[in-house]
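Deliverable D2.4 — example input (structure tokens):
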């Protein structure tokens, strides 16, 4: 059985603690510097080493495609489904939130067009989910034709 080393004097104890503190401080300084950036970083430099994100465009485009496809099937009354219940969940979660996040990741990668397009469509799908789930248009308009006109103009936007 191996015996543990136990310091015998106060000097040995102090020497042991000093060495442990020094090693700990050196490890912390090596792993996490006190300040890792600049106050004025300058313009964005598109260096491939800085791109640590995967390409978020397929995620955003997939979210747009699926949500649009489901809404189009409802508009076509495919399988005799006429209520937009399913597309509301997609509009909030996949077409809205995920697409908005993909747009923000596009911004982090440095793709301004992808960030603008995906974020805009993400916001659109969230607003569509809000309008479809709350039924605000049905409360505001008694006339079905006026409701469809306003809703059509909304979808054209």
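Example output (designed residues):
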């Amino acid at each position: 059985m191996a015996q543990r080393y136990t310091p015998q004097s106060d000097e040995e104890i102090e020497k042991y603690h000093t060495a442990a503190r020094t090693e700990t401080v050196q490890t912390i300084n090596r792993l996490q510097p006190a300040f890792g950036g600049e106050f004025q970083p300058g313009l964005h430099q598109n260096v491939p080493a800085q791109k640590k994100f995967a390409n978020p465009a397929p995620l955003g485009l997939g979210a747009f495609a699926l949500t649009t496809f489901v809404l189009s099937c409802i508009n076509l009354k495919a399988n005799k489904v006429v209520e937009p219940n399913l597309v509301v969940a997609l509009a909030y979660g996949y077409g809205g939130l995920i697409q908005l996040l993909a747009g923000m990741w596009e911004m982090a990668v440095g793709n301004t067009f992808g960030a603008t397009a995906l974020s805009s469509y993400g916001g659109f799908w969230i607003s569509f989910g809000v309008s479809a789930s709350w039924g605000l248009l049905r409360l505001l308009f008694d006339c079905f034709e006026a409701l469809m006109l306003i809703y059509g103009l909304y979808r054209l936007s």
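The chain has a mean pLDDT of 77.
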